């Protein structure tokens, strides 16, 4: 029987904050017809790089998986341990993924039955019925689709699932590394990010009907997802595992375990994103931010331990997975009630002003939090408990609510 693991309460709110920033990123894309609404490009490019919050999720997941499950696989990967681990992770990520997938499919069926059509070419590509099996099998970010499909945000759940399946086999080799070996692994991860930037981004394909969505290689980003997304997850996850090993040894604790360091690192990340420097530099801040928060301090612990911060962290998975289906619902209703005129001039609709955009963003975030609370309480938790209780180990530990 495996012993329980101390809960690192400071990490849960970080995931919630990252999820909310992801929501803001997508709101800006939706309302601004590609961005440039909530924050003007000429003022700051920060919002154009908020997709990197997903990479923070990956680093955090690697850290927490090692913290909670590393001891299960320290010596070997036993069949029974792998079974309990797989069931626990399935119970954590699949029910809400399945629920939101069904919701998106049902939403489109309702509007198709009502005579609605996908007037937006991006929606027409996204609502790909042939892609449903890949979602059910969590393969939809494994180079089987040519664009985001259905609940677009769930691409990262696909990559994380397969990283979970690889994780147990990495624990023992990584545990045997000395400091030099760990540093070499970290360097290899950043070399991997550079490979994504210069080799992978240029070969990612997009549908012929929406060529304007292709990532510009000149942006020097790591923004791959529905194709080669697993590589992006792999490098972040492994970074998280390496950071956890440094954490257990108390590396640089005197420097990192204070709020001033955490604030400085966060500001450094913000500056990199503001100027849209190559993503590899921004990602370098994630392991350090995570290490500082994990060590904690009296003030950090007090702030992150507040009930609102913990609840946002609890709901983070729901926030991440439900916000785009909510956007699709609003967009579908508006299109159905106000169908575009066949005589309307070609081109994007007029852009609203910034103040209106921010008001809509705040209202949408509040609505997303409400729905996320409901899905967390009535979908996530009951489904997880039922699956673990029926098919898994009742004593499977809570994985830092990740």
Automatic annotation (TrEMBL):
Keywords: Acyltransferase, Membrane, Transferase, Transmembrane, Transmembrane helix
Keyword Coiled coil: no
Transmembrane segments: 12-31, 51-69, 90-114, 153-171, 183-206, 226-247, 259-277, 283-305, 317-337, 357-376
Domain Acyltransferase: from-to ranges: 14-377
Signal peptide extent: none
MF-aspect GO terms: acyltransferase activity
Domain of life of the source: Bacteria
Coiled coil region boundaries: none
Record flagged with keyword Transferase: yes
UniProt name for this protein: Acyltransferase
Species annotation: Runella salmonicolor
């Amino acid at each position: 029987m495996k012993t329980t693991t101390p809960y690192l309460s400071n990490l849960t709110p970080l995931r919630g904050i990252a999820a909310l920033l992801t929501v803001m990123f997508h709101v800006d894309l939706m309302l601004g017809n590609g961005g440039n609404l909530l924050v003007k490009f000429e003022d700051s490019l920060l919002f154009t790089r908020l997709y990197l919050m997903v990479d923070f999720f990956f680093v955090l997941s690697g850290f927490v998986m090692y913290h909670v499950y590393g001891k299960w696989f320290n010596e070997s990967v036993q069949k029974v341990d792998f079974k309990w681990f797989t069931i626990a992770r399935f119970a954590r990520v699949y029910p809400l993924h399945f629920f939101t997938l069904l919701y998106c499919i049902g939403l489109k069926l309702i509007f198709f039955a009502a005579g609605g059509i996908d007037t937006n070419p991006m929606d027409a590509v996204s609502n790909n019925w042939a892609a449903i099996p890949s979602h059910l099998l969590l393969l939809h970010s494994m180079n089987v689709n040519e664009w985001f499909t259905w609940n677009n945000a769930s691409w990262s759940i696909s990559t994380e699932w397969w990283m979970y399946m690889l994780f147990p086999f990495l624990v023992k080799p990584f545990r045997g590394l000395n400091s030099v070996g760990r540093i070499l692994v970290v360097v290899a991860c950043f070399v991997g990010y550079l490979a994504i930037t210069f080799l992978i981004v240029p070969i990612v394909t997009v549908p012929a009907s929406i060529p304007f969505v292709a990532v510009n290689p000149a942006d020097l980003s790591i923004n791959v997802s529905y194709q080669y997304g697993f590589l992006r997850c792999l490098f972040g996850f492994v970074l998280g595992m390496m950071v956890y090993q440094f954490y257990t040894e108390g590396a640089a604790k005197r420097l990192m375990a204070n709020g001033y360091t955490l604030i400085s690192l966060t500001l450094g990340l913000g500056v990199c994103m503001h100027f849209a420097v190559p993503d590899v530099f921004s990602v370098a801040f994630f392991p350090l931010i995570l290490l500082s928060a994990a060590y904690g301090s009296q003030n950090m612990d007090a702030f992150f331990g507040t009930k609102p911060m913990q609840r946002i962290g609890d709901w983070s998975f729901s926030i991440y997975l439900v916000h785009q289906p909510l956007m699709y619902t609003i967009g579908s209703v508006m299109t159905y009630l106000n169908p575009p005129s066949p005589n309307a001039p070609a081109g994007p609709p007029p852009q609203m002003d910034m103040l209106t955009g921010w008001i809509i963003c705040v209202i949408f975030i509040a609505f997303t939090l409400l729905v996320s609370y409901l899905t967390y309480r009535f979908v996530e938790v009951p489904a997880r408990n039922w699956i673990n209780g029926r098919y898994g180990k009742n004593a499977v530990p809570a994985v830092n609510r990740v």
